[in-house]
Amino acid sequence: MNEQTSNPNAINEGTNEQAAVSSLPARPEPKPEVVTEVQPEVQKETDSQAADKRKQVLDEAVSALALTKSALAALDEKESARALATLAEVTGKLELIVAREPTLALAPVDVRTIVHDLFANTETVEAMTDEALHALKHGEVQQARHVLALLASEIVIVVTNIPLASYPAAVKSVVPLIDQGKIEEAKAALQAALSTLVETHSVHPLPALRARLLLKRAETLVEDGQRSEASNERLETLLNEARQQLEMAELLGYGKKKDFEPLYAELKKVKQKTAGGGGGKGWLDEVKAKLSKLF
């Protein structure tokens, strides 16, 4: 697995065509302390989701892909016999996959995780959105594109797959070309087959994940009807930040306003119930259920 963490606050200085984003602070805005607290759990969740995807990777598919590249290398070295033998192995691996799972369309060969984390508050995100809209209104499409590219806070799990409907046939079509001595055409055909690998993307919004983890921490305090003043303050902080994270998710377009309104309403109810120091079990069940349904 290849992991890459991208900081959207970093401005690309590689081209003059992309102007700096004027609404972006000169420095990344720090995250609230309670958000920093749940970061280890965010990382654990990220690793868990990637691990679940990795379990779906097929060893035969990984071997088939590696052997395809080996066959291409053999052709580069003018070793036609080795290339043919290697392609026969590729075909055997692919046929085994299809025999085991006839309905499988995509055979996973690789999983990687990309994390886009936005170090900005909701006010900054609103300003950036306004800047993008202003740019579009005035025909500055590339400037808008540059701004919008930064407006993401998410875990993206990318799975690379062999398309079983076309890849096996593409590999087999190379054999007659090698037999006819058309090595360059055979190489081009193999490269074309390798270019047909399909990537699927699973997007998991970080603000929603953080909101869920903050609510999990708040739940223990909500259930305690004998909270101290310090505990009351912490509970209020957790609930307020959970709301902020949901607002961030809405601003970044991970759902529509109507999707978030019930969540805000449930959080408001919980805050009202706990405002006087009250507590009870199950008070956060509804908001957690709605959040799980949305994400």
TrEMBL record:
<feature type="compositionally biased region" description="Polar residues">
    <location>
        <begin position="1"/>
        <end position="21"/>
    </location>
</feature>
<feature type="domain" description="PpiC">
    <location>
        <begin position="205"/>
        <end position="295"/>
    </location>
</feature>
<dbReference type="InterPro" id="IPR000297">
    <property type="entry name" value="PPIase_PpiC"/>
</dbReference>
<protein>
    <submittedName>
        <fullName>Heat resistance protein YfdX2</fullName>
    </submittedName>
</protein>
<feature type="compositionally biased region" description="Basic and acidic residues">
    <location>
        <begin position="42"/>
        <end position="53"/>
    </location>
</feature>
<dbReference type="InterPro" id="IPR021236">
    <property type="entry name" value="Uncharacterised_YfdX"/>
</dbReference>
<keyword id="KW-0175">Coiled coil</keyword>
<feature type="region of interest" description="Disordered">
    <location>
        <begin position="1"/>
        <end position="53"/>
    </location>
</feature>
<keyword id="KW-0697">Rotamase</keyword>
<feature type="coiled-coil region">
    <location>
        <begin position="225"/>
        <end position="252"/>
    </location>
</feature>
<dbReference type="GO" id="GO:0003755">
    <property type="term" value="F:peptidyl-prolyl cis-trans isomerase activity"/>
</dbReference>
<dbReference type="Pfam" id="PF10938">
    <property type="entry name" value="YfdX"/>
</dbReference>
<keyword id="KW-0413">Isomerase</keyword>
